[in-house]
Amino acid sequence: MKKIIILLLIFTSFSYCQKNFLNDPLVSEIFTADPSAHLFNGKIYIYPSHDIIEKDPLYDDCGSQYAMRDYRVLSMDSIGGPVTIHDVALDLNDVPWAKRQFWAPDAAEKDGKYYLYFPTKDKEDIFKIGVAVSNKPEGPFKSKKDPIEGSYSMDPSVYKDDDGKYYMYIGGIWGGQLQRWDENNQYTPSGCETQDNGIPNSPAISPRIALMSDDMVSFAEEPKPVRIIDKEGMPILTKDHERRFFEAAWVHKKDGIYYLSYSTGNTHLIVYATSDNPYGPFVYQGIMNNPVQGWTNHHSTLEVDNKWYFFYHDTQISGKDFLRNVKYTEMFHKEDGSIETINTIIE
Ligand code: FUB
User: Fold this and answer.
1) Atom of ligand 1 nearest to the CA of 101
2) CATH code at 171?
3) What is the rounded CA–CA span in Å between residue 81 and residue 76?
4) Which residue's CA is the nearest one to ligand 1's atom 9?
5) Statement: the pTM of the whole predicted model exceeds 0.90
6) Ligand 1 in contact with 33 (CB < 6 A)?
7) Could you give phi then psi for residue 291, rounded to 5 degrees?
8) Total number of domains in the chain
């Protein structure tokens, strides 16, 4: 029996080493995850989470092991060029209302000012969305003293539409606490162990959208649910873990089509749905990225010189779910508007 176990262990570690990855990590000096990529002043800026090794890590169902404490911005002059790791852009200690966990951020530019949007837990351990402002894309950013009024949950991403309006998409279930907020933005405390809304045949919990005010540091409206439906017009259901929204909403537009892509969490996919309106409803289309190595799958998309790129993370360097590394690869929209599925592991 002992021999069999040893052989199994050797085989498992051998096949683990044999894994071929489609792309190399962008940087190996620090652990980075959840990349939100943007083109500012002709340069590529990536706003990732900065994963860290805690001295006494706390593991629980709420994701406490993702205990990040600051943000570092990455930049490249061009695709394939050298990567700069900038100094600390924002530290948790400089956010007056924050208690712990700097999760997936995003950024936006307006009139020469840069806005860093970030989810973190307040003193009551409730996720809200914060905003910090800088004159430079890489920061340092100065945090507002309170979270954005009316904001909740996590994984903010800000989409700038062609007409100059900015929309924030937010939300993530389980550890991201979206299940605590109903669609009228009312809060009911519950643990992270509350998985989805507990009713398998009900429509799945929706990500939320809010139009940003002109000042970029507040919402111009209350967050509204973004419906995700199938091609027959029926809502994607709670029990449909291969297609229902979990976290990491991101929107891009190509040829007049709005693409909402998101993570399915415990089934580890990035899937996408399309609409002719930023508010949706979005019609589920298919898989954008198959599972990466590691539990979380979180991405962004960026067009540079008429080519589209998919930024993502995996755990190639550490092999640990909460110590991730950011990567990117080219992505392709087909003639019919669908997206070619990406496989980042080549077996
Ligand atoms: O990085 C912490 C959390 O893990 C993010 O906010 C989620 O999207 C997942 O990637």
Assistant:
1) 2
2) 2.115.10.20
3) 6
4) 296
5) yes
6) yes
7) -55, 140
8) 1
168 C-beta neighbours (distance < 10 Å), count: 24
Distance CA 280, CA 258 (A): 9
Residue 34 annotated to the active site: yes
pLDDT tens-digit readout, 13-65: 444 456 899 999 999 999 999 999 999 999 999 999 999 988 777 888 889 99
Closest CA to 175 of 197, 195, 156: 195
Name the active-site residue from 106, 109, 196, 247: 247
pLDDT digits (tens, 9 = 90+) for 110-150: 999 999 999 999 999 999 999 999 999 999 999 999 999 99
- By the 10 Å C-beta count (0-12 exposed, 13-18 middle, 19+ buried), 306 is classed as exposed
Distance CA 88, CA 113 (A): 18
Q: Ligand 1, closest atom to CA 297?
A: 10
CB 104 near ligand 1, within 6 Å:
yes
Residue 271 in tokens:
């899937």
Determine the distance separating the centroid of ligand 1 and the alpha carbon of 195, expressed in angstroms. 16
Which structural domain range is residue 287 located in?
A: 2-346
